[in-house]
Protein backbone atom coordinates (compact mmCIF):
# COMPACT_ATOMS: atom_id res chain seq x y z
CA UNK A 1 0.00 0.00 0.00
CA UNK A 2 1.40 3.37 -0.98
CA UNK A 3 1.66 6.06 1.68
CA UNK A 4 2.49 8.65 -0.98
CA UNK A 5 -1.11 9.50 -1.78
CA UNK A 6 -0.80 13.07 -0.46
CA UNK A 7 1.70 13.71 -3.25
CA UNK A 8 -0.73 12.76 -6.01
CA UNK A 9 -2.20 15.60 -8.06
CA UNK A 10 -5.98 15.96 -8.34
CA UNK A 11 -5.95 19.64 -9.28
CA UNK A 12 -5.82 19.85 -13.08
CA UNK A 13 -6.59 23.57 -13.29
CA UNK A 14 -4.20 26.12 -14.69
CA UNK A 15 -4.52 28.38 -11.65
CA UNK A 16 -1.20 30.06 -11.03
CA UNK A 17 0.94 27.80 -8.81
CA UNK A 18 2.11 29.18 -5.50
CA UNK A 19 5.69 28.41 -6.54
CA UNK A 20 5.45 31.12 -9.21
CA UNK A 21 4.13 33.63 -6.70
CA UNK A 22 6.80 32.64 -4.20
CA UNK A 23 9.52 33.13 -6.81
CA UNK A 24 8.28 36.65 -7.51
CA UNK A 25 7.87 37.47 -3.84
CA UNK A 26 11.28 36.01 -3.01
CA UNK A 27 12.93 38.14 -5.64
CA UNK A 28 11.11 41.24 -4.48
CA UNK A 29 11.43 40.82 -0.74
CA UNK A 30 14.56 38.63 -0.49
CA UNK A 31 12.92 36.48 2.19
CA UNK A 32 15.41 33.69 1.67
CA UNK A 33 18.40 35.87 2.47
CA UNK A 34 17.89 35.72 6.21
CA UNK A 35 16.10 32.37 6.65
CA UNK A 36 14.27 32.02 9.94
CA UNK A 37 15.90 35.11 11.40
CA UNK A 38 13.87 37.20 9.00
CA UNK A 39 10.76 36.27 10.96
CA UNK A 40 11.79 38.84 13.54
CA UNK A 41 12.22 41.65 11.01
CA UNK A 42 9.17 41.33 8.74
CA UNK A 43 5.93 43.26 8.91
CA UNK A 44 4.54 41.02 11.67
CA UNK A 45 7.50 41.61 13.96
CA UNK A 46 6.78 45.29 14.29
CA UNK A 47 3.59 44.49 16.14
CA UNK A 48 5.02 41.63 18.17
CA UNK A 49 8.44 42.78 19.29
CA UNK A 50 7.62 46.42 19.92
CA UNK A 51 4.71 45.35 22.09
CA UNK A 52 7.08 43.28 24.17
CA UNK A 53 5.63 39.88 23.38
CA UNK A 54 2.45 37.98 22.58
CA UNK A 55 0.24 38.79 25.49
CA UNK A 56 -0.35 38.72 29.20
CA UNK A 57 0.75 35.09 29.48
CA UNK A 58 4.30 36.21 28.77
CA UNK A 59 4.15 38.55 31.76
CA UNK A 60 2.94 35.69 33.99
CA UNK A 61 5.90 33.54 32.94
CA UNK A 62 8.39 36.33 33.55
CA UNK A 63 9.46 36.62 29.93
CA UNK A 64 9.54 40.40 30.12
CA UNK A 65 12.29 40.01 32.67
CA UNK A 66 13.94 37.01 30.97
CA UNK A 67 13.68 37.51 27.24
CA UNK A 68 15.01 34.09 26.26
CA UNK A 69 12.10 31.83 25.38
CA UNK A 70 14.08 28.67 24.58
CA UNK A 71 16.74 27.49 27.01
CA UNK A 72 16.83 23.68 26.85
CA UNK A 73 19.65 21.41 25.72
CA UNK A 74 18.78 20.39 22.15
CA UNK A 75 18.94 16.86 20.80
CA UNK A 76 22.02 16.64 18.60
CA UNK A 77 21.77 15.42 15.02
CA UNK A 78 24.07 12.54 15.86
CA UNK A 79 21.71 11.35 18.61
CA UNK A 80 18.38 11.67 16.80
CA UNK A 81 18.12 8.33 15.03
CA UNK A 82 17.59 4.65 15.70
CA UNK A 83 14.75 2.43 16.92
CA UNK A 84 14.01 4.40 20.09
CA UNK A 85 12.96 8.02 20.83
CA UNK A 86 15.43 10.68 21.97
CA UNK A 87 14.52 13.70 24.07
CA UNK A 88 16.39 16.77 25.31
CA UNK A 89 18.47 16.13 28.41
CA UNK A 90 16.30 18.70 30.20
CA UNK A 91 13.12 16.70 29.52
CA UNK A 92 11.63 13.27 30.12
CA UNK A 93 8.74 11.31 28.66
CA UNK A 94 6.23 8.58 29.48
CA UNK A 95 4.57 6.29 26.91
CA UNK A 96 0.76 6.33 27.07
CA UNK A 97 -2.13 4.56 25.26
CA UNK A 98 -0.35 2.58 22.53
CA UNK A 99 -2.51 1.06 19.79
CA UNK A 100 -4.54 -1.84 21.18
CA UNK A 101 -4.51 -0.82 24.83
CA UNK A 102 -8.00 -0.96 26.41
CA UNK A 103 -9.96 2.29 26.39
CA UNK A 104 -10.38 1.94 30.13
CA UNK A 105 -9.18 -0.50 32.79
CA UNK A 106 -10.80 -3.91 32.47
CA UNK A 107 -11.19 -3.76 28.69
CA UNK A 108 -9.75 -6.29 26.26
CA UNK A 109 -5.96 -6.40 26.21
CA UNK A 110 -3.98 -6.20 22.98
CA UNK A 111 -3.47 -9.39 21.00
CA UNK A 112 -2.00 -9.43 17.53
CA UNK A 113 -3.69 -9.39 15.15
CA UNK A 114 -6.74 -7.92 16.91
CA UNK A 115 -10.31 -8.97 16.29
CA UNK A 116 -13.03 -6.57 15.18
CA UNK A 117 -15.05 -6.58 18.41
CA UNK A 118 -12.03 -6.02 20.66
CA UNK A 119 -10.80 -3.18 18.46
CA UNK A 120 -14.01 -1.21 19.18
CA UNK A 121 -12.98 -1.21 22.86
CA UNK A 122 -9.29 -0.50 22.30
CA UNK A 123 -7.13 2.45 21.30
CA UNK A 124 -6.96 2.77 17.52
CA UNK A 125 -3.91 2.90 15.26
CA UNK A 126 -2.40 5.87 13.42
CA UNK A 127 -2.26 8.33 16.35
CA UNK A 128 -2.48 11.87 14.96
CA UNK A 129 -4.16 15.13 16.01
CA UNK A 130 -5.52 15.31 19.55
CA UNK A 131 -6.67 17.66 22.30
CA UNK A 132 -6.68 17.56 26.10
CA UNK A 133 -9.88 18.72 27.81
CA UNK A 134 -9.33 19.47 31.53
CA UNK A 135 -11.87 18.15 34.03
CA UNK A 136 -12.76 20.10 37.16
CA UNK A 137 -15.22 19.76 40.01
CA UNK A 138 -17.34 22.79 39.21
CA UNK A 139 -17.65 22.51 35.48
CA UNK A 140 -16.88 19.69 33.09
CA UNK A 141 -14.50 21.65 30.89
CA UNK A 142 -12.45 24.80 30.78
CA UNK A 143 -9.99 26.02 28.17
CA UNK A 144 -7.41 28.60 29.16
CA UNK A 145 -7.32 29.99 25.62
CA UNK A 146 -10.79 31.49 26.07
CA UNK A 147 -11.72 31.32 29.75
CA UNK A 148 -12.27 34.41 31.88
CA UNK A 149 -9.31 35.04 34.19
CA UNK A 150 -11.64 36.65 36.74
CA UNK A 151 -13.58 33.44 37.45
CA UNK A 152 -13.39 32.81 41.25
CA UNK A 153 -12.45 29.14 40.85
CA UNK A 154 -9.82 29.74 38.20
CA UNK A 155 -6.79 28.97 40.38
CA UNK A 156 -8.26 25.76 41.76
CA UNK A 157 -9.31 24.53 38.34
CA UNK A 158 -5.80 25.14 37.02
CA UNK A 159 -4.44 22.73 39.61
CA UNK A 160 -7.04 20.01 39.04
CA UNK A 161 -7.19 20.36 35.26
CA UNK A 162 -3.47 19.78 35.01
CA UNK A 163 -3.72 16.19 36.20
CA UNK A 164 -7.19 15.04 35.16
CA UNK A 165 -8.88 15.34 31.79
CA UNK A 166 -10.33 13.80 28.65
CA UNK A 167 -7.88 13.12 25.84
CA UNK A 168 -9.44 12.89 22.39
CA UNK A 169 -7.15 11.48 19.72
CA UNK A 170 -7.41 10.84 15.98
CA UNK A 171 -6.44 7.55 14.36
CA UNK A 172 -5.55 8.47 10.80
CA UNK A 173 -4.63 5.16 9.20
CA UNK A 174 -3.11 1.72 9.59
CA UNK A 175 -1.96 -0.32 6.62
CA UNK A 176 -3.20 -3.87 6.12
CA UNK A 177 0.24 -5.42 6.80
CA UNK A 178 0.46 -3.47 10.06
CA UNK A 179 -3.12 -4.06 11.29
CA UNK A 180 -3.94 -7.45 9.77
CA UNK A 181 -0.52 -8.94 9.17
CA UNK A 182 -1.34 -9.46 5.48
CA UNK A 183 -1.55 -7.40 2.32
CA UNK A 184 -5.33 -7.58 1.76
CA UNK A 185 -8.43 -8.45 3.75
CA UNK A 186 -9.85 -11.90 3.09
CA UNK A 187 -13.25 -11.49 4.72
CA UNK A 188 -15.69 -8.93 6.11
CA UNK A 189 -14.24 -9.66 9.57
CA UNK A 190 -10.82 -8.53 8.31
CA UNK A 191 -12.40 -5.36 6.93
CA UNK A 192 -14.13 -4.67 10.25
CA UNK A 193 -10.80 -5.00 12.11
CA UNK A 194 -9.27 -2.40 9.80
CA UNK A 195 -12.32 -0.13 10.00
CA UNK A 196 -12.47 -0.26 13.79
CA UNK A 197 -8.77 0.54 14.08
CA UNK A 198 -9.44 3.86 12.32
CA UNK A 199 -11.39 6.84 13.69
CA UNK A 200 -11.18 8.56 17.09
CA UNK A 201 -10.56 7.53 20.72
CA UNK A 202 -12.01 9.43 23.67
CA UNK A 203 -10.27 8.43 26.90
CA UNK A 204 -10.24 9.75 30.44
CA UNK A 205 -6.73 10.08 31.87
CA UNK A 206 -5.44 11.01 35.28
CA UNK A 207 -2.02 11.58 36.82
CA UNK A 208 -1.36 9.67 40.01
CA UNK A 209 2.02 9.42 41.80
CA UNK A 210 3.68 11.04 38.82
CA UNK A 211 2.28 8.62 36.21
CA UNK A 212 -0.56 9.20 33.73
CA UNK A 213 -3.06 6.37 33.30
CA UNK A 214 -6.46 5.77 31.74
CA UNK A 215 -9.31 5.53 34.26
CA UNK A 216 -12.89 4.26 34.23
CA UNK A 217 -15.14 6.74 32.48
CA UNK A 218 -18.78 7.16 31.40
CA UNK A 219 -17.54 9.13 28.41
CA UNK A 220 -14.72 6.93 27.10
CA UNK A 221 -15.62 5.63 23.64
CA UNK A 222 -14.39 4.70 20.21
CA UNK A 223 -15.79 6.46 17.15
CA UNK A 224 -15.06 4.62 13.91
CA UNK A 225 -16.35 4.17 10.39
CA UNK A 226 -19.43 2.23 11.57
CA UNK A 227 -20.49 4.66 14.30
CA UNK A 228 -23.80 6.51 13.69
CA UNK A 229 -23.24 10.18 12.85
CA UNK A 230 -25.42 13.08 11.84
CA UNK A 231 -25.08 15.99 9.43
CA UNK A 232 -25.76 19.64 10.15
CA UNK A 233 -25.55 22.87 8.19
CA UNK A 234 -26.36 23.73 4.57
CA UNK A 235 -25.79 20.25 3.10
CA UNK A 236 -27.76 18.30 5.72
CA UNK A 237 -30.72 16.53 4.11
CA UNK A 238 -29.55 17.33 0.59
CA UNK A 239 -29.88 14.66 -2.14
CA UNK A 240 -26.08 14.59 -2.47
CA UNK A 241 -25.97 12.88 0.94
CA UNK A 242 -28.76 10.38 0.18
CA UNK A 243 -28.20 6.88 -1.21
CA UNK A 244 -30.73 4.70 -3.10
CA UNK A 245 -30.27 2.14 -0.32
CA UNK A 246 -31.46 4.66 2.27
CA UNK A 247 -28.77 3.60 4.74
CA UNK A 248 -28.19 5.93 7.66
CA UNK A 249 -24.98 8.00 7.77
CA UNK A 250 -22.20 6.11 9.51
CA UNK A 251 -18.69 6.89 10.54
CA UNK A 252 -15.62 8.99 10.17
CA UNK A 253 -12.34 7.90 8.62
CA UNK A 254 -8.77 9.00 7.91
CA UNK A 255 -8.90 11.40 10.83
CA UNK A 256 -5.80 13.49 10.45
CA UNK A 257 -5.31 16.73 12.37
CA UNK A 258 -7.90 18.39 14.56
CA UNK A 259 -9.18 21.50 16.26
CA UNK A 260 -11.18 22.47 19.32
CA UNK A 261 -13.78 25.08 20.19
CA UNK A 262 -14.25 27.58 23.03
CA UNK A 263 -17.52 25.83 23.84
CA UNK A 264 -15.61 22.68 24.80
CA UNK A 265 -15.90 20.36 21.81
CA UNK A 266 -13.42 18.50 19.65
CA UNK A 267 -13.10 18.87 15.87
CA UNK A 268 -11.73 15.92 13.91
CA UNK A 269 -10.85 16.26 10.24
CA UNK A 270 -11.36 13.71 7.47
CA UNK A 271 -8.42 13.80 5.08
CA UNK A 272 -7.68 10.99 2.59
CA UNK A 273 -11.16 9.46 2.71
CA UNK A 274 -11.06 8.66 -1.01
CA UNK A 275 -8.53 5.86 -0.49
CA UNK A 276 -11.01 3.55 1.25
CA UNK A 277 -13.33 3.40 -1.75
CA UNK A 278 -12.89 1.32 -4.89
CA UNK A 279 -14.95 -0.46 -7.53
CA UNK A 280 -15.68 -4.16 -7.97
CA UNK A 281 -17.66 -3.42 -11.16
CA UNK A 282 -20.10 -6.18 -10.21
CA UNK A 283 -23.26 -4.09 -10.67
CA UNK A 284 -22.06 -1.75 -13.35
CA UNK A 285 -18.78 -0.64 -14.89
CA UNK A 286 -17.65 2.28 -12.79
CA UNK A 287 -16.39 5.38 -14.53
CA UNK A 288 -15.43 8.33 -12.31
CA UNK A 289 -17.39 11.55 -12.55
CA UNK A 290 -15.52 14.85 -12.80
CA UNK A 291 -16.16 15.41 -9.10
CA UNK A 292 -14.85 11.98 -8.17
CA UNK A 293 -11.70 12.58 -10.20
CA UNK A 294 -11.18 15.95 -8.52
CA UNK A 295 -11.35 14.24 -5.14
CA UNK A 296 -9.00 11.42 -6.16
CA UNK A 297 -11.32 8.40 -6.26
CA UNK A 298 -10.01 5.41 -8.18
CA UNK A 299 -10.90 1.81 -8.94
CA UNK A 300 -8.52 0.36 -6.35
CA UNK A 301 -8.18 3.13 -3.77
CA UNK A 302 -5.14 2.92 -1.51
CA UNK A 303 -5.20 -0.88 -1.30
CA UNK A 304 -7.35 -1.31 1.82
CA UNK A 305 -9.79 -3.50 -0.12
CA UNK A 306 -12.81 -2.59 1.99
CA UNK A 307 -15.00 -2.31 -1.11
CA UNK A 308 -14.55 -6.03 -1.84
CA UNK A 309 -16.53 -6.98 1.28
CA UNK A 310 -18.38 -3.84 2.41
CA UNK A 311 -20.80 -2.52 -0.22
CA UNK A 312 -20.81 1.01 1.23
CA UNK A 313 -17.32 1.53 -0.17
CA UNK A 314 -17.98 0.03 -3.61
CA UNK A 315 -18.27 2.91 -6.05
CA UNK A 316 -19.85 0.60 -8.62
CA UNK A 317 -22.68 -0.50 -6.30
CA UNK A 318 -25.79 1.33 -7.52
CA UNK A 319 -27.41 1.09 -4.08
CA UNK A 320 -24.68 3.22 -2.52
CA UNK A 321 -24.38 6.10 -4.95
CA UNK A 322 -23.36 9.27 -3.00
CA UNK A 323 -21.89 7.33 -0.06
CA UNK A 324 -18.52 8.98 -0.82
CA UNK A 325 -20.09 12.43 -0.35
CA UNK A 326 -20.62 11.61 3.32
CA UNK A 327 -16.87 11.86 3.92
CA UNK A 328 -14.42 14.75 3.70
CA UNK A 329 -15.93 16.94 6.42
CA UNK A 330 -15.02 18.45 9.78
CA UNK A 331 -16.71 16.42 12.53
CA UNK A 332 -17.62 17.82 15.96
CA UNK A 333 -17.46 15.53 19.01
CA UNK A 334 -18.53 16.26 22.60
CA UNK A 335 -15.81 14.75 24.81
CA UNK A 336 -17.93 15.09 27.93
CA UNK A 337 -21.09 13.35 26.69
CA UNK A 338 -20.80 9.95 25.04
CA UNK A 339 -24.54 9.91 24.30
CA UNK A 340 -24.13 12.64 21.67
CA UNK A 341 -23.67 11.61 18.05
CA UNK A 342 -20.70 13.10 16.21
CA UNK A 343 -21.88 15.92 13.93
CA UNK A 344 -20.46 16.62 10.47
CA UNK A 345 -20.44 20.42 10.06
CA UNK A 346 -21.02 20.93 6.35
CA UNK A 347 -20.72 24.73 6.33
CA UNK A 348 -16.93 24.24 6.60
CA UNK A 349 -16.81 22.58 3.18
CA UNK A 350 -15.78 19.18 1.87
CA UNK A 351 -12.16 18.55 0.93
CA UNK A 352 -9.17 16.69 2.36
CA UNK A 353 -9.13 18.46 5.70
CA UNK A 354 -5.73 18.28 7.35
CA UNK A 355 -6.88 20.20 10.41
CA UNK A 356 -8.78 23.25 11.62
CA UNK A 357 -7.42 26.10 13.75
CA UNK A 358 -10.31 27.95 15.36
CA UNK A 359 -10.01 31.42 16.83
CA UNK A 360 -12.40 34.20 17.84
CA UNK A 361 -12.41 37.21 15.55
CA UNK A 362 -14.06 40.59 15.20
CA UNK A 363 -17.51 40.69 16.76
CA UNK A 364 -16.74 37.43 18.60
CA UNK A 365 -17.30 35.46 15.43
CA UNK A 366 -15.77 32.01 15.23
CA UNK A 367 -13.08 31.83 12.54
CA UNK A 368 -11.58 28.55 11.30
CA UNK A 369 -8.46 28.19 9.14
CA UNK A 370 -8.08 24.93 7.21
CA UNK A 371 -5.62 23.33 4.80
CA UNK A 372 -6.45 20.87 2.01
CA UNK A 373 -3.52 18.44 2.13
CA UNK A 374 -2.68 17.57 -1.45
CA UNK A 375 -0.30 18.92 -4.02
CA UNK A 376 -1.66 22.09 -5.62
CA UNK A 377 -4.65 22.41 -3.35
CA UNK A 378 -5.82 25.31 -1.25
CA UNK A 379 -6.08 27.11 2.08
CA UNK A 380 -9.58 27.92 3.36
CA UNK A 381 -11.22 30.09 6.01
CA UNK A 382 -14.68 29.93 7.60
CA UNK A 383 -16.29 32.84 9.47
CA UNK A 384 -19.44 32.31 11.52
CA UNK A 385 -22.45 34.47 10.72
CA UNK A 386 -22.69 36.03 14.17
CA UNK A 387 -21.22 36.28 17.67
CA UNK A 388 -20.55 32.65 18.59
CA UNK A 389 -21.99 33.08 22.10
CA UNK A 390 -25.18 34.59 20.72
CA UNK A 391 -25.55 31.73 18.25
CA UNK A 392 -25.06 29.14 20.98
CA UNK A 393 -27.58 30.94 23.18
CA UNK A 394 -30.08 30.73 20.33
CA UNK A 395 -29.48 26.99 20.02
CA UNK A 396 -27.50 27.27 16.79
CA UNK A 397 -23.99 26.02 16.21
CA UNK A 398 -21.53 28.75 15.14
CA UNK A 399 -20.19 26.17 12.66
CA UNK A 400 -23.53 25.73 10.87
CA UNK A 401 -24.01 29.18 9.38
CA UNK A 402 -21.38 31.51 7.97
CA UNK A 403 -19.12 32.16 5.01
CA UNK A 404 -16.49 29.83 3.52
CA UNK A 405 -13.53 31.42 1.73
CA UNK A 406 -10.50 30.22 -0.21
CA UNK A 407 -7.17 32.05 -0.36
CA UNK A 408 -5.50 33.76 -3.28
CA UNK A 409 -1.90 34.90 -2.69
CA UNK A 410 -0.53 37.86 -4.67
CA UNK A 411 3.06 38.65 -5.62
CA UNK A 412 3.21 41.82 -3.52
CA UNK A 413 2.59 40.06 -0.21
CA UNK A 414 -1.14 40.75 -0.19
CA UNK A 415 -3.95 38.27 -0.54
CA UNK A 416 -7.70 37.95 -0.88
CA UNK A 417 -10.25 35.62 0.63
CA UNK A 418 -12.63 34.56 -2.14
CA UNK A 419 -16.07 33.58 -0.91
CA UNK A 420 -17.45 30.23 -2.02
CA UNK A 421 -21.07 31.27 -2.44
CA UNK A 422 -23.80 30.45 -4.92
CA UNK A 423 -24.46 34.21 -5.04
CA UNK A 424 -21.31 34.53 -7.16
CA UNK A 425 -22.38 34.33 -10.84
CA UNK A 426 -19.30 32.24 -11.64
CA UNK A 427 -20.40 29.58 -9.18
CA UNK A 428 -24.10 29.91 -9.96
CA UNK A 429 -23.27 28.93 -13.54
CA UNK A 430 -21.62 25.71 -12.37
CA UNK A 431 -23.66 24.61 -9.33
CA UNK A 432 -27.36 24.33 -8.53
CA UNK A 433 -27.26 25.50 -4.91
CA UNK A 434 -24.99 26.28 -1.94
CA UNK A 435 -25.03 22.64 -0.85
CA UNK A 436 -23.34 21.66 -4.12
CA UNK A 437 -20.79 24.46 -3.73
CA UNK A 438 -19.83 23.14 -0.28
CA UNK A 439 -19.85 19.46 -1.26
CA UNK A 440 -17.57 20.20 -4.19
CA UNK A 441 -15.60 23.00 -2.53
CA UNK A 442 -12.43 22.07 -4.42
CA UNK A 443 -14.14 22.58 -7.77
CA UNK A 444 -15.68 25.87 -6.64
CA UNK A 445 -12.24 27.07 -5.51
CA UNK A 446 -10.81 26.09 -8.91
CA UNK A 447 -13.36 28.30 -10.65
CA UNK A 448 -12.56 31.32 -8.46
CA UNK A 449 -8.82 31.09 -9.17
CA UNK A 450 -7.51 30.17 -5.72
CA UNK A 451 -3.75 29.72 -5.38
CA UNK A 452 -2.53 26.10 -5.57
CA UNK A 453 -0.25 25.43 -2.61
CA UNK A 454 2.45 22.90 -1.71
CA UNK A 455 0.33 20.54 0.38
CA UNK A 456 -1.24 22.77 3.07
CA UNK A 457 -1.21 20.88 6.35
CA UNK A 458 -1.60 22.15 9.93
CA UNK A 459 -2.66 25.70 10.70
CA UNK A 460 -2.26 27.49 14.02
CA UNK A 461 -3.27 30.94 15.23
CA UNK A 462 -0.89 32.82 17.51
CA UNK A 463 -2.28 35.10 20.23
CA UNK A 464 -0.90 38.16 18.41
CA UNK A 465 -3.04 37.40 15.35
CA UNK A 466 -0.45 35.72 13.13
CA UNK A 467 -1.68 32.59 11.35
CA UNK A 468 0.88 29.93 10.41
CA UNK A 469 0.50 27.05 7.97
CA UNK A 470 2.90 24.21 7.17
CA UNK A 471 3.39 23.43 3.48
CA UNK A 472 5.00 20.01 3.70
CA UNK A 473 6.56 19.65 0.25
CA UNK A 474 5.95 19.65 -3.50
CA UNK A 475 8.73 18.30 -5.65
CA UNK A 476 7.19 17.88 -9.12
CA UNK A 477 10.43 16.42 -10.39
CA UNK A 478 10.61 13.02 -12.11
CA UNK A 479 14.13 11.90 -11.27
CA UNK A 480 16.93 12.90 -8.92
CA UNK A 481 20.57 13.66 -9.62
CA UNK A 482 23.57 14.32 -7.41
CA UNK A 483 23.35 18.07 -7.80
CA UNK A 484 19.59 18.32 -7.34
CA UNK A 485 18.49 15.33 -5.22
CA UNK A 486 15.55 17.16 -3.70
CA UNK A 487 14.76 20.02 -6.11
CA UNK A 488 12.65 22.15 -6.38
CA UNK A 489 10.70 22.16 -3.06
CA UNK A 490 10.93 18.69 -1.60
CA UNK A 491 11.48 19.86 1.97
CA UNK A 492 8.63 22.32 2.41
CA UNK A 493 8.21 25.65 4.14
CA UNK A 494 6.03 27.51 6.62
CA UNK A 495 3.96 30.52 5.64
CA UNK A 496 2.29 33.08 7.89
CA UNK A 497 -0.25 35.78 7.31
CA UNK A 498 -2.41 38.28 9.15
CA UNK A 499 -6.00 38.97 8.20
CA UNK A 500 -7.64 42.37 8.12
CA UNK A 501 -10.43 43.14 10.61
CA UNK A 502 -9.18 40.69 13.24
CA UNK A 503 -9.55 37.51 11.17
CA UNK A 504 -12.88 38.43 9.60
CA UNK A 505 -11.72 40.62 6.70
CA UNK A 506 -11.48 39.83 3.00
CA UNK A 507 -7.78 40.66 2.66
CA UNK A 508 -4.54 39.59 4.32
CA UNK A 509 -0.78 40.15 4.20
CA UNK A 510 1.57 37.21 4.00
CA UNK A 511 5.25 36.35 4.54
CA UNK A 512 7.38 33.22 4.28
CA UNK A 513 8.29 32.35 7.85
CA UNK A 514 10.75 29.55 7.17
CA UNK A 515 12.18 27.55 4.27
CA UNK A 516 13.15 24.08 5.49
CA UNK A 517 16.03 23.82 3.02
CA UNK A 518 17.65 26.84 4.69
CA UNK A 519 18.23 24.73 7.81
CA UNK A 520 20.15 21.99 6.02
CA UNK A 521 23.81 21.79 6.93
CA UNK A 522 23.09 23.17 10.40
CA UNK A 523 22.52 21.44 13.72
CA UNK A 524 18.85 22.46 13.47
CA UNK A 525 18.19 20.74 10.13
CA UNK A 526 14.68 19.51 9.36
CA UNK A 527 12.44 18.73 6.40
CA UNK A 528 8.73 18.23 5.70
CA UNK A 529 7.08 20.39 8.38
CA UNK A 530 3.64 19.06 9.31
CA UNK A 531 2.32 19.42 12.89
CA UNK A 532 2.29 22.98 14.20
CA UNK A 533 1.32 24.85 17.35
CA UNK A 534 1.90 28.47 18.42
CA UNK A 535 1.99 28.80 22.19
CA UNK A 536 0.89 31.93 24.09
CA UNK A 537 4.46 33.16 24.68
CA UNK A 538 5.91 33.32 21.17
CA UNK A 539 7.14 29.80 20.56
CA UNK A 540 6.25 27.75 17.51
CA UNK A 541 6.35 23.96 17.86
CA UNK A 542 7.14 22.24 14.54
CA UNK A 543 6.68 18.51 13.91
CA UNK A 544 7.87 16.64 10.83
CA UNK A 545 6.66 13.87 8.54
CA UNK A 546 9.10 12.86 5.84
CA UNK A 547 12.73 12.13 5.01
CA UNK A 548 15.05 14.04 7.35
CA UNK A 549 18.70 14.83 6.66
CA UNK A 550 21.78 13.32 8.28
CA UNK A 551 20.01 10.10 9.30
CA UNK A 552 17.61 11.89 11.63
CA UNK A 553 14.29 10.37 12.57
CA UNK A 554 11.24 12.58 12.38
CA UNK A 555 11.26 15.18 15.09
CA UNK A 556 9.74 18.08 17.01
CA UNK A 557 11.53 21.44 17.15
CA UNK A 558 10.76 24.69 18.93
CA UNK A 559 11.23 28.08 17.27
CA UNK A 560 11.37 31.48 18.95
CA UNK A 561 9.33 33.53 16.48
CA UNK A 562 10.86 36.77 17.75
CA UNK A 563 14.55 35.93 17.42
CA UNK A 564 14.63 33.07 14.92
CA UNK A 565 16.21 30.63 17.37
CA UNK A 566 15.41 26.99 16.59
CA UNK A 567 16.11 23.93 18.75
CA UNK A 568 15.29 20.22 18.48
CA UNK A 569 13.37 18.96 21.52
CA UNK A 570 12.48 15.39 20.49
CA UNK A 571 13.08 12.74 17.84
CA UNK A 572 10.94 9.67 17.23
CA UNK A 573 11.79 6.15 16.20
CA UNK A 574 12.92 4.95 12.79
CA UNK A 575 10.19 5.02 10.16
CA UNK A 576 7.65 6.99 12.15
CA UNK A 577 5.97 10.40 11.95
CA UNK A 578 5.89 12.81 14.89
CA UNK A 579 2.47 14.38 15.10
CA UNK A 580 -0.31 15.52 17.39
CA UNK A 581 0.23 18.19 20.02
CA UNK A 582 -1.72 19.33 23.05
CA UNK A 583 -0.94 20.56 26.56
CA UNK A 584 -2.42 20.83 30.02
CA UNK A 585 -3.67 24.32 30.99
CA UNK A 586 -0.44 25.21 32.79
CA UNK A 587 1.62 24.07 29.76
CA UNK A 588 3.85 21.97 31.97
CA UNK A 589 2.70 18.70 30.39
CA UNK A 590 2.60 18.08 26.63
CA UNK A 591 1.19 15.14 24.70
CA UNK A 592 2.55 14.22 21.26
CA UNK A 593 2.36 11.05 19.12
CA UNK A 594 4.45 8.62 17.16
CA UNK A 595 2.57 7.36 14.12
CA UNK A 596 3.40 4.15 12.21
CA UNK A 597 6.73 3.49 14.04
CA UNK A 598 8.97 1.51 11.75
CA UNK A 599 6.18 1.75 9.18
CA UNK A 600 4.81 -1.29 11.01
CA UNK A 601 7.91 -3.41 10.33
CA UNK A 602 9.19 -5.24 13.46
CA UNK A 603 12.63 -5.62 11.92
CA UNK A 604 12.99 -1.81 12.12
CA UNK A 605 11.63 -1.21 15.62
CA UNK A 606 9.46 -2.96 18.20
CA UNK A 607 8.50 0.23 20.01
CA UNK A 608 7.21 0.46 22.70
CA UNK A 609 8.30 -3.13 23.44
CA UNK A 610 11.99 -3.96 23.99
CA UNK A 611 13.93 -4.73 20.83
CA UNK A 612 13.46 -8.33 19.71
CA UNK A 613 12.98 -8.06 15.94
CA UNK A 614 9.60 -9.81 16.17
CA UNK A 615 7.05 -7.81 18.19
CA UNK A 616 4.84 -5.60 16.04
CA UNK A 617 5.49 -1.85 16.68
CA UNK A 618 2.56 0.17 18.00
CA UNK A 619 1.60 3.81 17.58
CA UNK A 620 1.60 5.60 20.93
CA UNK A 621 1.35 8.90 22.78
CA UNK A 622 4.26 10.51 24.64
CA UNK A 623 3.70 12.54 27.81
CA UNK A 624 6.50 15.13 27.88
CA UNK A 625 7.59 17.19 30.90
CA UNK A 626 10.57 19.29 31.89
CA UNK A 627 12.62 17.70 34.65
CA UNK A 628 12.49 20.97 36.58
CA UNK A 629 8.71 21.28 36.15
CA UNK A 630 8.94 24.29 33.83
CA UNK A 631 6.90 25.41 30.84
CA UNK A 632 7.20 23.09 27.84
CA UNK A 633 9.50 24.55 25.19
CA UNK A 634 11.40 26.78 27.60
From TrEMBL:
SUPFAM superfamilies: Calcium-dependent phosphotriesterase. It comes from the Bacteria. Pfam families: PhoX. PANTHER family: DUF839 DOMAIN-CONTAINING PROTEIN, SLR8030 PROTEIN. This is PhoX family phosphatase.
